[in-house]
Structure formats: structure tokens, C-alpha cells
Specification:
Blueprint lengths: L11 H14 L11 H8 L3 H13 L3 E3 L5 E3 L20 E2 L14 H13 L11 H13 L7 E4 L2 H12 L5 E6 L3 H9 L3 E8 L2 E2 L1 H9 L4 E5 L12 H12 L5 E5 L19 E7 L1 H4 L6 E5 L1 H12 L7 H12 L5 H21 L11 E5 L3 H10 L2 E2 L1 E2 L10 E5 L8 H9 L12
Parallel strand pairs: 3-13, 5-6, 5-8, 8-9, 9-10
Antiparallel strand pairs: 1-2, 4-11, 6-7, 10-11, 12-15, 14-15
Length: about 450
């Protein structure tokens, strides 16, 4: 059952650690069956309840999954497997269209904003006992939500979108609960869900976002939460339009107990209007990150939602990091207040690059997707071969496996640094990528 590996330990924590070490080192492989609890208890000379507690810990950490009489197995994608590691090494001279980063030339300068935040901190130091939200940032965030038709609600500040989503999920869900996620979707979220001991159920996506039928089916079958991307969906570029938003609101109204999480990370880099889904469920949040528009190193997101959810997030945050640095909050507030970023120009720049590539691929018979944001999703028949062919042609694209659960193969192309002269050669390389290619090992 376990080959040469022997689970060790006398206490539940020791047994769980032994299994987790073996999964991390590759001695226990995804899908490998673990011994029945009583059998392992006899082998280790411990009480079966001790093994049961160890297995429960492993389930909660997303390392194993249990299927009743079929036993416990190492998860197909355990929490120790980081999807960002499903990538290719980029040799010198090969263009990086895989990283998902914004164009540094489109990011606003931060020196003035940082200096202003530093000066304010010197005049009014943030000490223990200070509010967790800088008043100006909270006011500006709420004004932005109001302008986009997001219902009234308290505001919280977190260290980026993923931090916000994790805090919201743990505020309401428990290990074993099911979360409906977009497929293809954000790889970090697909890693986070099992790491929290939750189970992801895929929901298909088209250019207008999640399809209402699959969403309804997932919620009817017991999914307790739904995570959707409002605009600039990663990796497909989908954006929820007015008609699709209305359909999804109808679905959510039939499942009012759903925890709804809307990720608007594209705020500031897209020119499509926001169509919030909130209103049909008791618990909801909408999250906005500064990373794409102002720079990934500004680890800050704001969220609003129902009072219970936001209060739980802020309360738990106070018991951990306490607050997000007021220096960062002041920096973002300065950027927002002074409108340092020309959002229309940024959205137009990404739009030109993205639309040009999608159009060029269409002329070559490739039905790519990219309605908004900085990414284009290109379906391929052989994902590994496509990435290998692109690499040989001088382009390093992101393997679709980083973003998929059950959806067909593809590659993600980030258009951030593409010049007009790059469009034709890249489209040619992508169009040729479906053919056979040499084997390529992902790191």
C-alpha cells in the first residue's frame, strides 16, 4: 500500500507530520492509499482514536481526502503542491509571456506617495490601539464602492486579494465544505481551497464569466461558497456583463445561504463597468486589490461586505497581524486621492495589446479568449507539446495546468509587455503550437 515508506509516531501530531513529510518529499504520491485507521493503529501500537485524529488533521490541512469505505488517499493535488511551480524555466533570450505581471511602464511612480505616507507617519505615528483602517483609505474605498453600485457595508483592509479570500472563507466554512470556483481559474485560489481543507467544485466560464447552469448545479449539490471574478478573470479575461450578472443574481436568490465572494482585482486596469452580484445572499464580500494597477509589491486590498462577515474578518485579523501597515494604507490613499493612475489610458493600453493578439489568432484559425485585463487564454490540444513548441520558438507561456480542474487544455499568454511588432510572430507561434513537440519537463 505504501511501498517502502513506513508511517511513524505515537501521538496524532507525530503521525500526521510523518505523512506530511512523505508527501512533501514525494515518498507518498498523489492518489496513494493510506492504511485503514485500525490497521495503522495496530502497527504503531496506539489507540485507533489517535490515528483518527491524525487523519482528521491531514484532511483539514488538505493533504489527504477520505471517501468513506474506499479509504483515505493523498490528494491528487495536495496543499504542498504550488501551482506556480508548474512552469518552465525561461532560458536567456526567450520572451516571458507567462508571469502574469503588469507592465512596469504602466505602473504609477510611488516615490511621492511613499514620501507623503512617511511624512504623515512621522507627524502622527501609528501605535498599538490605533484603528485597523486608516480613516482616509476607508473613506476613499467606500466612495469607490458606492460609485460602482456596491451595496453599503463596512470596509476592511487585508494584505492582498488572496489574504482577503482566505479570511472570508475561514470566517464561515469548515474543513470538508465545498467551494464553487471558476474553471479555468486563478491558480493560487485553486491551491488555497484544498490547503484550507475545503473541496473545490469547478464551474465552467465563458467570456461573460461563470455559466449560470453550472453555478446553480454546484450550489444545489451542496457548495457553500462561490468565488467569482468580476473583471479581467485570470486566465481567460472574462468579465461579467449586465445580462450575465442578472442571471447569476437569479441563481443566487435561489440559494440565499451561499457565501458569495467577488474578486475585482481588475479594478484600475479595465474600462468595462462593474456589475456586482451581491444582494441575493445573506453573506457576501467584494474585494479590490492594488496589485495589478499600482504594483504587486503594494500588498493591500480593500473589501466590503455584510456586517457579520466583515466583523469576523477584522476580529480574526486583530488576533493575528493586527492590521495592515498604515504606511501602505497611506500610500494607496495618496495614489487614489490624487488620481495618480490614468486608468483609462492603462485599460486602453492593455486592451490594444490583448485585442490585437486575439484578432491575429482568429485570422489564423485559433479561437482565443481575452475580453478584459492582461491575459489571453489559448485552447490547445496538447498542452505540454504547445508549451514546448512555444519555448522553442522563443516564447515562454504559462501551462494551462496551473489554472485548470476539469476544463480542456490551454496556455495562458500575458500581453503586458507585448509591442505591436510582437503580435504577428507570437500569433504564428501560437497557431503552430498544437502540433507534436519534444517532451518538456515542468519545474
Amino acid at each position: 500500500m505504501l511501498g517502502e515508506y513506513r508511517i511513524e509516531g505515537r501521538r496524532a501530531a507525530e503521525i500526521a507530520a510523518s505523512v506530511e513529510r512523505a508527501v512533501g518529499s514525494g515518498e507518498l504520491l498523489p492518489g496513494q492509499l493510506l492504511p485503514p485507521q485500525r490497521e495503522l493503529a495496530t502497527e504503531l501500537g496506539v489507540n485507533p482514536n489517535t490515528v483518527a485524529a491524525a487523519y482528521r488533521t491531514l484532511r483539514e490541512r488538505g493533504v489527504i481526502e477520505t471517501a468513506g469505505r474506499r479509504g483515505s488517499r493523498v490528494r491528487p493535488r495536495p496543499s504542498t503542491t504550488w501551482r506556480e511551480m508548474i512552469r518552465v524555466e525561461i532560458p536567456e533570450g526567450v520572451r516571458d509571456i507567462a508571469s502574469g505581471n503588469p507592465d512596469p511602464d504602466l505602473l504609477p511612480p510611488l516615490a511621492e506617495a511613499l514620501a507623503a505616507a512617511g511624512a504623515d507617519s512621522a507627524a502622527h505615528p501609528t501605535l498599538y490601539g490605533a484603528p485597523d483602517i486608516a480613516p482616509e483609505l476607508g473613506r476613499l474605498a467606500r466612495e469607490g464602492f458606492d460609485a460602482d453600485g456596491v451595496p453599503a457595508g463596512p470596509v476592511a483592509v487585508t494584505s492582498g486579494s488572496l489574504d482577503a479570500i482566505e479570511r472570508v472563507l475561514t470566517a464561515h466554512l469548515r474543513p470538508g465544505d465545498v467551494v464553487a470556483v471558476e474553471d479555468p481559474g486563478w491558480g493560487s485560489l485553486l491551491d488555497l481551497v484544498p490547503a484550507l481543507g475545503l473541496r473545490a467544485v469547478p464551474v465552467a466560464v465563458d467570456d461573460d464569466g461563470p455559466l449560470p447552469g453550472p453555478v446553480d448545479g454546484a450550489l444545489a449539490e451542496g457548495a457553500r461558497a462561490l468565488v467569482v471574478t468580476a473583471r479581467a478573470q485570470n486566465p481567460t479575461g472574462a468579465a461579467i456583463g449586465a445580462a450575465r450578472a442578472g442571471e447569476l443574481r437569479e441563481v443566487l436568490a435561489r440559494h440565499p445561504g451561499t457565501l458569495l465572494i467577488e474578486d475585482d482585482h481588475g479594478h484600475g486596469i479595465v474600462d468595462l463597468p462593474l456589475h456586482p452580484l451581491v444582494g441575493g445572499t445573506e453573506h457576501w464580500v467584494l474585494v479590490r486589490s492594488a496589485a495589478k494597477a499600482y504594483g504587486p509589491d503594494l500588498r493591500l486590498a480593500v473589501l466590503t461586505g455584510d456586517t457579520v462577515t466583515v466583523d469576523r474578518v477584522r476580529g480574526r485579523q486583530r488576533l493575528g497581524p493586527g492590521w495592515v501597515s498604515h504606511l501602505l494604507q497611506g500610500t494607496v490613499a495618496h495614489l487614489w486621492r490624487n488620481r495618480t493612475l490614468d486608468t483609462r489610458a492603462v485599460a486602453a493600453a492593455y486592451g490594444r495589446r490583448r485585442d490585437a493578439l486575439v484578432r491575429a489568432l482568429g485570422e489564423r484559425g485559433v479561437a482565443a479568449r481575452g475580453r478584459s485585463g492582461m491575459n489571453v487564454w489559448v485552447p490547445v490540444a496538447d498542452e505540454t507539446g504547445a508549451v514546448a513548441r512555444l519555448l522553442n520558438a522563443g516564447w515562454a507561456a504559462a501551462p494551462g495546468a496551473r489554472f485548470r480542474l476539469a476544463s480542456p487544455p490551454g496556455v495562458r499568454v500575458t500581453v503586458s509587455r507585448l509591442a505591436a511588432a510582437d503580435t504577428g510572430p507570437l500569433a504564428d507561434a501560437l497557431a503552430a503550437a498544437a502540433g507534436p513537440a519534444p517532451a518538456l519537463r515542468f519545474g
